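Sample pair:
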Amino acid sequence: MERASDVVFVVQGVLREYFLLADGTERTKAFIAEAQVAGSLADLLSDAPSRASIVAEHETRVLLARYDEMKALGQRFPSWADFGRRTTAALLSRKAEREYELLALDAEGRYEAFLAQCPGMEARVTAKNVASYLGITPVHLSRLRRRRSGARAGR
């Protein structure tokens, strides 16, 4: 794998950030939609090969910037430094929320959190990738969906 070097701003579409396991399995780390920034902060800060990969889920328009150039702009211009701090804070906040969900919530709770935090995303990505994001199988996701639709119908 290559070293991470770019920061991506999504203009239109959806990116999926994932880890590729030794057996070829992909584990979805995040979905990045319009007006969000993609780029694995840990990979950008390390000198090691990138562990995360990013792929467009469908036709996507992005703005791409070299991370080193963004840092240089931040050193020269206070507004760029502020943008960098806010972007980093947002990434860290998302990461902390994701860790909480994975460690403290059951599958149903993670699914509910996903639906609340990413409205409409379920229709934009495959069920396989949603299940991967939730840390469950596609069959389990199907059960959660049925249970949820049944609960809504019973209201």
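The chain has two domains: 1-94, 105-155.
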